[in-house]
């Protein structure tokens, strides 16, 4: 995932450094900016491919394809047909999101990412631009079970919900 806004220059600096070390490495960008402006992002010389929307599985699939010598499209997204038929709401959400656990913030705090997307269409929010109005999340029971387990196993005293 790349940083957007005024800090994008740092992402470009990292991409430039990678390209100077190995010009053959494909540079794949993802995150908010590439998802909202894929064609604009691809105009930069340090961007070879763009992942639109959820990137976790798409990135793994792209890496496997490249490793196997297969060609991948410049814009990577599930159910992406072509630029004229592209709709962000057609993208698939990650199945089994609970397997993507973010590491703890401090020795006694765990960070939980228990959902993705949002069913609402708030005008001020960019979430729908990436996920459409799709939503996927853990069950309450699974969240409670993980917290209970973490308290018993790791003696946590805090939970950070992302």
Automatic annotation (TrEMBL):
InterPro entries: BchE-like, Cobalamin-bd, rSAM, rSAM_sf. The keyword Iron applies. One of its GO terms (molecular function) is metal ion binding. Its cofactor is [4Fe-4S] cluster. Residues 1-73 form the B12-binding domain. Transmembrane segments: none annotated. Keywords: Iron, Iron-sulfur, Metal-binding, S-adenosyl-L-methionine. PANTHER family: ANAEROBIC MAGNESIUM-PROTOPORPHYRIN IX MONOMETHYL ESTER CYCLASE-RELATED. This is B12-binding domain-containing protein. The lineage of its organism: unclassified sequences, metagenomes, ecological metagenomes.
């Amino acid at each position: 995932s790349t940083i957007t806004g005024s800090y994008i220059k740092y992402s470009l600096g990292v991409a430039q450094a990678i390209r100077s070390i190995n010009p053959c490495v494909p540079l794949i960008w993802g995150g908010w900016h590439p998802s909202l402006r894929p064609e604009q992002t691809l105009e930069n010389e340090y961007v070879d491919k763009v992942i639109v929307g959820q990137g976790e599985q798409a990135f793994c699939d792209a890496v496997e394809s490249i490793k196997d010598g297969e060609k991948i499209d410049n814009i990577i997204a599930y159910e992406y047909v072509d630029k004229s038929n592209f709709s962000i709401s057609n993208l698939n959400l990650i199945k089994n999101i609970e397997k993507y656990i973010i590491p703890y913030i401090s020795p006694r705090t765990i960070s939980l990412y228990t959902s993705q997307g949002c069913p609402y269409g708030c005008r001020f929010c960019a979430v729908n631009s990436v996920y459409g109005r799709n939503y996927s999340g853990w069950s309450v029971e699974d969240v409670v079970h993980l917290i209970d387990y973490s308290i018993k196993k790791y003696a946590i005293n805090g939970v950070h919900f992302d």
